[in-house]
Write a structure and sequence with these properties.
about 220 residues, about 45% helix, Cytochrome Bc1 Complex, Chain D, domain 2, 2 domains
């Protein structure tokens, strides 16, 4: 029998309110205007605005330290949403980012997202950990929630509008992100999807999933 976690991962947005699950954790509405704004982001304009980002995220969009995420090749819609969430306070797991985005307009954010999305993604990192293939890809076994690949793609490439690519991301950052979801420190996941899933994972599974996706190549 599917548990509530499986339902959280699989049901449509219209069903969440009737289930009594936590409400949306973002002020970004993916209406036609927002989609068009992100789709028409100007990467050249974004490049001109990205100088302040390079100290942590690198001139090539590759994080300069294990705790700083790679932005290169990340999905533009995901990047745009994170910038918006930092600006309005929906995402509050980092002390630096709110100040960095405070003066950005929606157009600035769309341009930055387009710039980083167009950069070559980071190469695979490390040997990976196939012990969590069942959790990630749904290969055999049983679980209480949909596999990660249902939203993040079979190769960790990202497949839903505001869901990030995971392949090649820094394992330290991925592990910290899952731990922040688990503790509730990060709470800008729509309808608490990631918090619900992360709370069901052990620390060992979180570490292994981080290594698993870091070792994937897009």
């Amino acid at each position: 029998m599917k548990t509530a976690l499986c339902m959280i991962a699989m049901v449509g947005i219209s069903g969440w309110a009737t289930m009594g699950v936590a409400g949306p954790s973002s002020n970004v509405a993916w209406d036609s205007a927002t989609r068009q704004l992100v789709a028409n982001g100007d990467p050249e304009a974004g490049k001109a605005k990205a100088g302040a980002c390079a100290g942590c995220h690198g001139a090539d969009g590759i994080g300069t330290s294990p705790q700083f995420p790679n932005l290169a090749g990340q999905l533009a819609a995901y990047l745009y949403k994170q910038l918006r969430d930092y600006k309005d306070g929906t995402r509050a797991d980092d002390a630096v980012m709110p100040g960095m985005v405070a003066s950005l307009s929606d157009q600035d954010m769309a341009d930055l997202a387009a710039y980083y999305a167009g950069l070559p993604p980071a190469p695979a990192q490390g040997p990976g950990d196939d012990s969590v293939a069942e959790l990630a890809d749904g290969v055999g076994g049983t679980r209480d929630f949909a596999p990660c690949g249902a939203c993040h793609g079979s190769k960790g490439e990202g497949k839903i509008v505001h869901v990030p690519a995971l392949a090649g991301q820094k394992p330290t950052y991925l592990e910290a992100t899952l731990q922040n979801y688990k503790s509730g420190k990060r709470a800008n996941d729509v309808y608490a999807r990631m918090r619900s899933i992360a709370q069901s994972l052990t620390d060992a599974q979180i570490k292994a999933l981080a290594a698993y996706y870091a070792a994937k190549q897009r």
